[in-house]
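Record type: monomer structure entry
Structure origin: computed from sequence
Chain ID: A
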Amino acid sequence: MAHQVEVLILQHPLEVANAKNSARLLHLCLPKSRIATGESFPDAGWLAAPWDDAAPRRLVLLYPQTPLDQAEDLMAPPSRDAAWLSEPARLRLVVLDGTWRKSRKMLYRSPPLQQLPRLALRDVPASRYHIRKAHRPDQLSSFEAACAALMQLEGEAAKFQPLLDAFDGFVAQQAAYRER
């Protein structure tokens, strides 16, 4: 599947060995992706470093702006230039993988991530990730959130349907193991 946006997945260490690790599946499904593990990412240099080509990428963090940001003394993220979104081939989407609590901790401990403009999802669908507990239907897995963001950025939802079909198969397989 050819997509334009690069995806950098930053995974919390406690998620790596999780059998329901949707970030690993996402990384395996997306040729323009990388995955790194850690609880903090204090060095900004490698976040934007070129991968396969020399074309610089603009970084955008898949994370909503929340009222907790000010309460926790997080830096306000810079505003995003709307023109960026018209050039998906020049974007690198940064996805935090972990529970909400873990991802907030990763963000809090990583000032370079706080300095990235953010992308919040629009029209969030109900989660397909029925094998885990969620408080609301729109609480997506990292896999689903990244797919929704790619659809939003690239404007081609049908292109990402095979990814969601693979995810549905993964969820069904995990549910079958659980029933045994």
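Annotation 1: Residues 6-179 form one domain.
Annotation 2: The first helix runs from residue 22 to 29.
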